[in-house]
Every structure is written in structure tokens, then in C-alpha cells.
Amino acid sequence: MKNLIKYIVIMFVFTSIISCDTILEPIDENRLDFEFISTDPASAEGLLLNGYSDIIDQFTYNEAATDDAVNNQLSNGFKRMALGELNAQFNPASRWNNFENVLWVNRFLEVIEAGEIVWSQDQDIDEMFYFRMEGEALALRGLHHFYALQAHGGVGTSGELLGVPYITEFIASDGDFNLPRLSFEATVEAIMADFDAALELLPTDYLDNPDTVIPLYEQYDPTKYQVVNGALYNLRMSGRIVSALKARLALFAASPSFLNDQGFYNIAATEASEILNTIGGVSGLAANGVDYYVEYDETNSDEMIWRGSIQNTPNSAIERRMFPPSINGNGEINPTQNFVDAFPMLSGFPATEANGFDPQNPYANRDPRLEKFVILNGSSFGGSTINTGLGGGIDRLDSIPEFSTTTGYYLKKTLRPDVSINNDGSSTDQRHYDVYFRYTELFLIFAEAANEIGGPDHLINGLTPRDVIAAIRERAGLAQPDAYLASITTTEAMRELIRNERRLELSFEGHRFWDLRRWGVSLNETAEGAFFDGTDYTLGIPVETRNYPSFGTYMPIPNTEIIRFSALEQNMGW
User: Fold this and answer.
1) How many CA atoms lie within 13 A of 494 on its CB side?
2) Are 529 and 543 a contacting pair, CB within 8 Å?
3) CA-to-CA distance for 140 and 47, rounded, in angstroms?
4) pLDDT category, 2, cuts 50, 70, 90?
5) Number of C-alpha atoms within 13 angstroms, CB side, residue 82?
């Protein structure tokens, strides 16, 4: 009897289990789905914030793939591409993955367009949040398309100058990604359209008490406006940033390797000059713009159009990579003699013997920026004297593979000199931040574009290329009056000077790699170095032979994408 009762109980329990659907169904893992995100403001904003990922900063150090630097790490991607490994399967400069950021912001736009998000119970504040974040999303979508265009636009196998696909909607993982590339000009126009739409929605700056606001916000109470567009949101995408990005895009599009177009030069010069006039024109050129990196803090705000947040936790990661080995760094980026030669004499004239250059005293009477940007043989740095010649120990040229300099120079620019790294690995760290756009770049955009339109003295909104270059060179500490600049009278001569100033001022911030390509100049200048044997200097020692193919001006589309999607056309040669 007892066994019968036991069996009945067991069967009852078993029957109860198999009859209960919820027991056998998978449990809810508390994952947030898009239905939830579509109604939750914080989660929806998270989609937008994904668009702020992968913004390009000054720490790429792709100069190692140009004539400006050599990377002493044998496995470095930029070193490998410069030596001939660049192909559609191996491209360290690829930005095809920026389309992921595009998809995030497109998803955000779909969510807010559904109208179910309530940002605030106050209707006015709710509307303004909607406007502003839509503007951010449109601007970020344009920016990530620009990154892809810069890295992958070019002449396709058909012979047509092509851009990239322009994605304006969210595509699910099982959706159709087989999208053709637009023409180059159509891609530029699509980015411009997103930027222009964003300008209608974004505040010029995030300020608590602005003197003026854009027309969209004039109807709203100032106190409510501050809740949405106050200083709390500084560093997010603003109208000022978008206008600067328009100028950068227009200059890129107008360049000789692409459209070579006066209309886009006009857009670049006009957009740039209008922003520059809001800071007083050339009088607004930041005094600390040359070595802004010495202190990454709020004192550099006059030089910054857009930067990332100042790090809460100090670190020394970049310095550990770049400091010379005698002060416990890896000495990774080595500026070249080519780069050093680009610095003029203190008089402002090019560094030639005819202008007073002494090859046995090569750093005397030179542009003061040289010692600010490069650790030279005999430089004082980190409490030590760095000797890269005979007797220099581990700092000596080629002393220790992958630690010592390969060119006779170490990098100083972008590094904080107040970082110290001890022999035991401990360190005195400092805070840093990412730089996305400096006013100096905008001044140089204006100068280049305006010169291409009408020469050195072409006047646009009260500025001329000569005015801008004069201010930049005076800030650098070159002798005044600037006799060399005064001697420049033609568009061609000013073009070369502007390009050289851009090379110096924006050095080691990721620009030259792309500038060489948009200008259509040689990518295969041999990287050179220097050595001091205790008595004499030898300059111009070949260090690395650059080995780009003739079609290397235009970078490849990733081969995996070409294989998967038949609508994509590869660039010529790849």
C-alpha cells in the first residue's frame, strides 16, 4: 500500500511538471530588446552615444606610414603597410567598420521618429531634447560616412571616381547590405545634407546663458533652453563643430586627387572664415596652440573646437610607448630627417645652406617648433640629456631593436613632459584627452582653400591666406617681420608654404597620411635619419624605403566586403 501511494505521488508530480508550459520554456534573461529601448529615454540615448564611439583622435600615429616618421616596432601595421604589405586583406587604415556607428545612429533616429520616447514631462523641454538629439544623430551619421569616404573613396575599376554607400536607415543583421557605392560627389553631397540638417537643430555652442540662439529655439523660455542646451552638454556635437566638419569635408572634396573643384574650395573657405570671425579672426589664434599637449586641461580651451573629456584617471600609456628608452619608454615613433628638414630657419626661410643652415650644427637658429615637437640629439628631456649619437647608450641610433630610435630622433609632440616613468615600472601619471578638431586646423583649411580660389591675398570675410599664415608663423616664434612670407606672391608658392605649415602644425595628429593622398603627391619618399659620430653629423641616411603601389593614392575596400556583396565596386588596382 505504501509503495502504491509513493508511485501515485511520483506520477502526480511528474504529470504536473510536464503539463506546465512555463517550466519548460526558456527563462527571461532580462535582456533589453528594441521594444523596451523604444520607450525608455536612457536606453534610447545609449543608441545615440554609440555614435560617439570611433571618433578619430590625435593618437593614431599613422605618420609611421609617411615620410614624417618610422615606427621602431617591427609588427606595427603602419610600418608594414609602408613597406609594401598594404592590400585589400591588410589595411590598418581601413575605416569600413565606421558603418557600424552609422547603423547605431540610424536605429536611434528610427526610435525617436516613432514618437514614443518622452524625454521630459514638460512639453517644451521634451521638444527641444528631440530636436537636439536628432541633430546630433544626423551630424554623427555624416561624420562616420566622411571617415569611410576619406579612407575608401577613389577611382573604381570602372574608371569612375566613387564614394561609399550612404546608409540612411537601420539594417538588421539579416537585412540587405548589398549596397552600391555612390559617386564621390554624391557621397559628399549626402554628407553635406546631413550636416546642413543638423545645423538647423543644434545649438551653436552649449552655454548656460547664450547671447543668441538659432531660430529654432527662439520661441522657448531661456530657463528651459538651458536644461537642454546648457554647458552640461559641452563636448557633444554642436553647430560650431558641424560647421568646422563641413569645412574639412569641403577641402577634402576640392583637393586635386578628388574633385579639384572651385565650388568646394569656396564652401571650405566660407565656412571656415565664418567660424574664425566669431573668435576675432587671426587675433583669436590661441597663443598656446603650438604645444597645447603640454597640459591637457581647460587652459587649452581657446585652441579646441572639439575634444573628448579630460580623463578622470591619470595615466602614462602614450608616454610609455614614446619616451626614449633611457627614461623607460619604448621609443616607438621616430621622426625622420625629412620631417626635421621641413622646419625653416629662425629667419623663416627654408633650411638651406644658402639661408644659413649648417649641416654640422643642424639645429641652430631653427624654427622654435622643432625643439618643441622633436627630441633632438643633445636635447634635455625627462630630467635627462638624450644623446642619439656616439656614446648615447640605449638612446643611440639602432642601439636596441624595438626600443632605440631608428632615425636619430624621438617624438616629443603630443606627450606630457611631466609624466615620469621609474625603473621599477611605477610612474607619475597625468591626465590626457582626445583631440578631434583644433582651431589651428581650421585656420589652415581657410588658408589652403582661399589661396586655391584667388591666391595669397584673396579676401574672404575679412581674412586672407597671407594673414593666417603670418599669424601662425609669428606665434611659432619666427623672426619678424617675416621676409620670406613677404616674398611669396603666387598661388603656387603660397600653396607650398601652406602645405609645409600644415605639415608642421598638424604633425603627429593623423593628418599627413591623408594629406599626401588628397594632394596626389609622392607616397614613396624614402624615410631618412641622422647620426652624430662624436665629431660630425651625417644627415639623410636612408632608413626605410616606402613601397606603395602606383594606385596607392586610393585605399582599398576590404576584400571580405567585395566577396560578400556583388554591388560593391573595388578601387582600381586592388
Assistant:
1) 26
2) yes
3) 12
4) very low
5) 28
Q: Whole-angstrom Cα distance, residue 307 to residue 473?
A: 24
Beta carbons of 186 and 222 less than 8 angstroms apart: no
The pTM assigned to this predicted structure is: 0.94
Q: Which amino acid is at 434?
A: D
Task: Quote the longest CA-to-CA distance of the chain.
Answer: 118
From residue 84, how far is each of 6, 73, 183, 343 by CA, in Å? 79, 16, 29, 28
Q: Find the radius of gyration of the CA atoms of the chain.
A: 28
Q: Is 298 exposed, middle or buried (0-12, 13-18, 19+ CB in 10 A)?
A: exposed
Q: Comparing C-alpha atoms, which of 504, 554, 558, 546 is closest to residue 65? A: 546
Helices (H), 230-342: 239-254, 262-277, 317-322, 337-341
For residues 18 and 343, give the distance between their C-alpha atoms in angstroms, rounded to a whole number. Answer: 82
Which residue matches cell numbers 593622398? 517
**CA 372/CA 387 separation, integer angstroms:** 17
Count of helices and strands (H, E) across the chain: 20, 14
| pLDDT for the residue 28 | 53
Q: Within 13 A of 305's CA, how many CA atoms are on the CB side?
A: 28
User: How far is it, in rounded angstroms, from Cα 175 to Cα 401?
Assistant: 49
pLDDT at 8: 42
For 540, the enclosing helix (H) or strand (E) is strand 537-544
DSSP assignment string, 378-407: TEEETTEEE--STT-GGGSTTSSTTTS-SS
Amino acid identity, position 216: L
Lookup result for grid cell 653629423: 537
Q: Which residues pair with 420 in a beta bridge?
A: 428
What is the residue-wise DSSP string for 9-57? HHHHHHHHHHH-HHHHSPPP--PPPHHHHTT-HHHHHHHHHHTTTT---
Helix (H) / strand (E) containing 231:
none
Q: How many CB atoms lie within 10 A of CB 81?
A: 24
Alpha-carbon gap, residue 92 to 78, rounded angstroms: 6
Among 560, 462, 444, 544, which residue's Cα sits nearest to residue 498?
444
Check whether 368 has a pLDDT greater than 60: yes
